[in-house]
């Protein structure tokens, strides 16, 4: 019997409640057996990110919210030395047979899918691609709150407290490591 796995990649710089809600959505609406969070090691489109290890650790803090280990944080991009989603999906299909992979992406990425490497192949290899809207981007009749990591970083630089927009433990980690100042 195959297992339904939600693949959720991104910069997670930092992970915020929109990311957490996407994982919740994967379980509640789409009935995933597990969700694999995959922080980007290097971004194919050239976006800058803070330290990979800090982002991985913050994702692990967020993943700790789901105490039954159905959420895993994987360093796959670093391990296979590729930031292309198609390479990650192929890696999982070859190394972990018996899983049905469902790719979760935001509407912002859906709108630029023509820039992705072999997006048409992703549609063939994944059992389903689930697009999540944010703010005014309504997809499937709903959207997540309009929260962005950029907004959170700007709040921190201005001395504002973004804690209400972050999963438990993330702001403490940011303070401890003096991130985004």
Overview features:
globular; single chain; alpha/beta; 5-stranded parallel sheet; Rossmann fold; 181 residues
Mean of all residue-level pLDDT scores: 92
Amount of beta strand? 15-25%
Number of strands: 5
Specify the helix fraction band. Answer: 25-40%
Model description:
The chain is 37% helix and 17% strand. The chain has 181 residues and is α/β, with parallel strands linked by helices. It has one domain: 3-Layer(aba) Sandwich (Rossmann fold). The chain has a 5-stranded parallel beta sheet, sandwiched between helices. Strand 1 (3-10), helix 1 (17-28) and strand 2 (34-39) form a beta-alpha-beta unit. The longest helix is centred in the N-terminal third of the chain and has 12 residues, at 17-28. The radius of gyration is 16 Å and the shape is globular. 31% of the residues are buried.
Quick overview of this protein structure:
With 181 residues, the chain is α/β, with parallel strands linked by helices. It has helices at residues 17-28, 52-63, 76-80, 85-95, 107-110, 119-125, 149-157, 170-176; strands at residues 3-10, 34-39, 71-73, 99-106, 128-132.
């Amino acid at each position: 019997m195959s297992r339904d796995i939600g693949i959720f990649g991104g910069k997670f710089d930092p992970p915020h409640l929109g990311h957490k809600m996407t994982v919740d959505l994967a379980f509640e609406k789409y009935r995933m057996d597990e969700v694999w969070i995959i922080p980007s090691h290097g971004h194919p489109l050239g976006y800058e990110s803070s330290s990979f290890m800090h982002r991985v650790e913050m994702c692990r803090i967020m993943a700790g919210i789901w105490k039954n280990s159905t959420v895993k944080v994987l360093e796959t991009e670093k391990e296979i030395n590729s930031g292309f989603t198609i390479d990650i999906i192929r890696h999982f299909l070859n190394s972990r047979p018996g899983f049905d992979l469902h790719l979760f992406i935001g509407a912002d990425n859906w709108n630029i899918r023509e820039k992705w490497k072999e997006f048409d192949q992703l549609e063939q290899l994944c059992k389903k691609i689930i697009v999540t809207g944010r703010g005014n981007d309504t997809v499937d009749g709903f959207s997540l709150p309009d929260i962005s990591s950029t907004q959170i970083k700007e709040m921190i630089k201005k001395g504002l407290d973004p804690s209400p927009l972050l999963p438990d433990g993330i702001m403490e980690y940011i303070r401890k490591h003096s991130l985004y100042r």
